[in-house]
Amino acid sequence: MRDSFVNTVIDLMRHDDKVALITADLGFGIFNKIVEEFPGRFINVGVAEQSMIGTATGMGLEGWTVFAYSIGNFSTLRCLEQIRNDAAYHEVNVNVVASGGGFTYGALGMSHHATEDLSILRALPGVTVVAPCDAYESAEATRALAARPGVGYLRIEKDVPIATKDAGAFTIGSARRLRQGRDVCLIGSGGIVSEAMKAADRLADEGVSCSVVSMHTLSPLDEALVLQVAGEHRAIVTVEENTIHGGLGGAVAEILAESSARVSFKRVGLPGVYSSIVGDQDYLRQKYGVDSEAIYAATKLLLS
Length: 304
What we know:
Elements: H1 2-15, E1 19-23, H2 32-37, E2 42-44, H3 49-61, E3 65-71, H4 80-88, E4 94-99, H5 117-122, E5 128-130, H6 135-147, E6 152-156, E7 176-179, E8 184-189, H7 193-205, E9 210-214, E10 217-219, H8 223-232, E11 235-243, H9 248-257, E12 264-270, H10 281-287, H11 292-303
Parallel strand pairs: 1-2, 1-3, 3-4, 4-6, 5-6, 8-9, 8-11, 11-12
Antiparallel strand pairs: 5-10, 7-9
Helix pairs in contact: 1-6, 3-4, 7-11
């Protein structure tokens, strides 16, 4: 996803001389091509994420389309006030990019685990929140956010072993069906969709027909799709590498609660805890119950 994002930004910069990238002491290596080709449109502010958002906002007010890039929580929670008060309140075209959503940087500990960002950014009025599930969605989301007015949030990961290009066009606010089934619909955001696909394969082997949906945009959420799948399936399971409080699961629950839908429902995500251990992403997904085994078990229990 990260390489897909960078390559797409380069293409945008080649076609629009008002596109710029700002980072906070990151990108040594991955941004070399941008530095070489567009030295006047790349800014490294150092270890100063709040200044990064302030600078991006100032440039946005002068007509620039800016991508502000850092690791997980550093581009979001560290500078939440600047995102809210400076960029979002003034509806500036600033796109905040968090590289390393969820447990991507698992070995670096809780400070680098982005597991509340989707909930918090989704609560800000006017902020478009996008968590693509693979390289294709990452590239398309980058283009879409650049063209969309106002503040965008793009949560990407390093590498995800699925490809969804053939699942239909990417549009902000419109979820994509990756797999069609009858019994249960697994709705995921971000790279964790790959675990939902694995769980769907295992359930299919046992005769359970699963749909899988990439709900790449959490705000604005595809309410119509949620209600549609609620009418087509016995159960819905949401899957996120994020706290279950206020994120994807919370958003879907709100829609179902305010509708006349009658469907069994379960959220799979972090159960309101801080991650207190370290390890690679696969290990932490297993430890905190968001891997394919946990999704499979939750779905089986719900259907029973």
